[in-house]
Amino acid sequence: LDAPRQAPALRNLTLEELIAGLHNGLRHEVLEGNVGYLRVDDIPGQEVMSKLRSFLAANVWRKLMGTSALVLDLRHCTGGHISGIPYVISYLHPGNTVLHVDTIYDRPSNTTTEIWTLPEVLGENYGADKDVVVLTSGRTGGVAEDIAYILKQMRRAIVVGERTVGGALDLQKLRIGQSDFFLTVPVSRSLGPLGKGSQTWEGSGVLPCVGTPAEQALEKALAILTLRRALPGVIQRLQEALREYYTLVDRVPALLHHLANMDLSSVVSEEDLVTKLNTGLQAVSEDPRLLVQVVRSKETSSGPEDEAEEPPEMVSEVPEDEAARRALVDSVFQVSVLPGNVGYLRFDRFADA
């Protein structure tokens, strides 16, 4: 392992020098769809954060506050300072009370330090109703791993990318005797973010909610956010369809209540949404016929969930040619076997006798 980077003597740096150093490890912009993007390659410590609070709030955070979702990119963040953890978590913590997010054990001093969110932040917290996605890679390490894990355990962020390195929060370089050999050892470790006891990311890394190669993680994150922006409209259209068409009228109020109170925080794909909707709606209605399906365009789908088309005009005579007969049947009937060995038969018109 490489030795940890030695921080310069911060007391000797001017504000301009601190800001210049910060620019090397921080990038922010607003992407298409009003998605905020914040890339952090190094987590500054408390001393730097305290000195730069006003600058960060005015020049970085204020520009991201108006976005509808946020991507926190930690793919290139290989370390940082433990004391900087509360500053990152606090701006994304939606609650009004302080939260105990981790306890750190330090071996040289044989002491533990509790990490809490800040009582207040300069500016505003990021809205609780806004989605946050954290990007990770196989290089994401140390303090960045702790931040990703805490946000995941808080259910405040969707982690997208690769399993992180599973490194250590803090490393120390020790000389072996009087030789020219050195040993780099972990000297601090997390005892379990959010009071989870022995559960920790060290050694095993942080497992993403959605696994994808690191170089594709941002594209995947934006696709997830596009889906999540559409969720309120999907739920509203489902409610309208149940009011208008569902024949078991007495069960409609319970179904509408269920839809209005569904927890969709874990939905990251169309498949997730369909599974969650069908499980909930069928349980509430006790009706296995109540089924939500994904409707795809003709170019990208070939199953029973194809987009509905206008039914063909019925022919007056059954053709003699075998191929023409098959084509006629295929234009009227759709037959397949769904997961769970469920037969599916669809026909849109009845033929005459």
Mean pLDDT: 85
Low-pLDDT sequence parts: 1-9, 301-308
What percentage of the residues does DSSP assign to strands (E)? 15-25%
- At CATH level 3, the topology of the largest domain is 2-enoyl-CoA Hydratase, Chain A, domain 1
Q: Which overall shape is indicated by the principal axes computed on the Cα atoms?
A: elongated
CATH architecture descriptor of the largest domain:
Alpha-Beta Complex
Protein name: Interphotoreceptor retinoid-binding protein
GO molecular function, one term: serine-type peptidase activity
Region (Disordered): 297-321
GO cellular component, one term: cone matrix sheath
Give a verbal description of the structure.
Helices cover 32% and strands 20% of the residues. It is an alpha/beta fold. The protein has two domains: 10-211, Alpha-Beta Complex (2-enoyl-CoA Hydratase, Chain A, domain 1), CATH 3.90.226; 225-285. Strands 1-2-3-6-7-10 form a six-stranded mixed β-sheet, with helices on both faces. The protein has a four-stranded antiparallel β-sheet with strand order 5-4-9-8. Helix 2 links the parallel strand 2 (35-40) and strand 3. Helix 3 packs parallel to helix 4, helix 5 (217-245) packs antiparallel against helix 6 and helix 6 (252-260) packs antiparallel against helix 7. The chain is elongated and about 100 Å long.
Task: Describe the secondary structure blueprint for this structure.
Layout: H1 15-23, E1 26-31, E2 35-40, H2 46-65, E3 69-73, H3 85-92, E4 100-106, E5 111-116, E6 131-136, H4 143-153, E7 158-161, E8 170-175, E9 182-190, E10 210-211, H5 217-245, H6 252-260, H7 270-285, H8 322-332, E11 333-338, E12 342-347
Parallel strand pairs: 2-3, 3-6, 6-7, 7-10
Antiparallel strand pairs: 1-2, 4-5, 4-9, 8-9, 11-12
